[in-house]
Amino acid sequence: MLSPESRSIIDATLPAVEAHANDITDVFYPLMFERYPEVKAYFNQTHQAEGTQRRALANAVVAYARNLDRLEALGDAVSLIVNKHVSLNIQPEHYPIVGECLLAAVKQVLGDAATEEVLAAWGEAYQQLADILISAEEGRYQENEAKQGGWRGERTFVLARKVAESEEIVSFYFEPADGGSVADFQPGQYIGLVLEIDGQQVRRNYSLSNRPGRPYYRISVKREPDGVASNFLHDRLNEGDRVQMTAPAGDFVLKDSERPLVLLSGGVGITPTLAMLEPALELGREVHFLHGARNSKVQAFRDRLAELEQAHDNLRVTVCYSDPLPDDANQTTGFFDRDRLASLLPEDRNVDVYFLGPRPFMQACFQNLNELAIPPRQIHYEFFGPLQSLS
Fold first, then answer.
1. What's the Rg (C-alpha) of the chain?
2. Where does the FAD-binding FR-type domain start and stop, copy by copy (predicted)?
3. How far is CA 73 from CA 24, 63, 64, 371, 381, in A?
């Protein structure tokens, strides 16, 4: 429990920290990577360059300080952090590194205003949060280890198959190197891969694109022009090669419900919604699978969606091409704007919607779904990277 003295100091200095939160995180990350280069592998450098990771940390620090006495007000943010940390195999010894460098960044940015008393108060608040996260993460590690086929930390997997799904997306089928079983997962969850690329360790999260209950894990990865990990996977990881993997994690999962289900995706955002599709169909739910892609050359899983639609009367598939090719003349084109969604969703709007894709796609979906009066509790989404605002 935070001491009254520290709480008073944090309340008094929060406006200054909030005003300079982005400056603090801009100092924090380079400082930490300089002092402790071994932790750089735990951070996606693309997100670093884009600034999304820094902004997410700044927002998280401020939100935490505002709600020291009522952490439940943070909603799903704490669980999101715990899941990401578990997928990266974050350990208790990493927390002092972050704390040291975060306080050093506060001192550098705030200058004389960051007295020893101020730094001590913020250090106490940080330790309180660290203890909460460490405890929650330990619980998840134990749960993962206790599952049939489960494990703690990293486990060696072999790439059994590599299948091109489109010109941009390739699926990778991984099986345990020890010949054992794989832990079950919830549709929508992701795994963590630990890769060795040109002598450097790189960690990435990827959504599982297969339904649960298979003897393998499948991820489907889009090649990004400057993507260190995606280009390595596409070009240099071959069948028979080994990788380290962390256990499935994530809260963006298909929840039990009898309501009609809308799975709305853009681009490679199809991966978790595809994992949700078959289990939902088998439960007899009415499913509207809505997917946006640029054209037929980059659309993944086209044949599989057609097979499922033919086999299930409770499935309706609508695919829109935003930049169709001449051969795509018979395909629906455009975007899932408000009018198109209104025409595709059940009239009573009593549906569960799960959506994922590029940030502009998600912003448009969020706005359109709200305007169409979908109840907020029935709208579910997740970011591929750091938490961002959709407003």
1. 22
2. 152-255
3. 24, 9, 9, 25, 19
Per the structure, the count of domains in the chain is: 3
Mean pLDDT, to the nearest integer, of 146-170?
Answer: 97
* 126 has catalytic annotation: no
Distance CA 122, CA 199 (A): 37
pLDDT one-digit tens code per residue, 178-221: 999 999 999 999 999 999 999 999 999 999 999 999 999 999 99
User: Alpha-carbon distance 294 to 322, whole Å?
Assistant: 5
CA geometry: angle 116, 117, 119, nearest 5 deg: 65
CATH number for the domain that contains residue 193: 2.40.30.10
Amino acid at 210: N
| 235 SS3 class | helix
138/161 same-domain check: no
Sequence-ordered list of residues with C-beta below 8 angstroms from that of 161, at least 6 positions apart, any chain: 171, 172, 173, 239
Mean pLDDT of all residues in 125-138: 92
Residue 294 neighbours by CB distance under 10 Å: 16
Structural domain boundaries, residue 55: 4-146
Phi, psi of 352 (to 5 degrees): -105, 130
**What's the half-sphere exposure (Cβ side, CA atoms, 13 Å) at 150?**
14
328 and 281 housed in the same domain = yes
Over range 169-183, report the average pLDDT: 97
* Token output for 234: 């596409």
CATH number where 358 lies: 3.40.50.80
Task: Categorize the per-residue pLDDT at 1 as very low, low, confident or very high, splitting at 50, 70 and 90.
Answer: confident
Q: In what order do the strands lie in the sheet with 287-293?
A: 315-321, 287-293, 261-266, 352-356, 379-381
Mean pLDDT of all residues belonging to the chain: 92
Which position among 95, 141, 173, 321 bears the catalytic label?
95
Contact predicate 175/216, CB 8 Å: yes
Task: Find the helix packing angle between 4-19 and 52-66, rounded to 10°.
Answer: 140
Final residue belonging to a domain, choices 227, 249, 271: 249
Residue-level pLDDT at 60: 83
5: annotated active-site residue: no
* 8 Å CB contact between 280 and 308: no
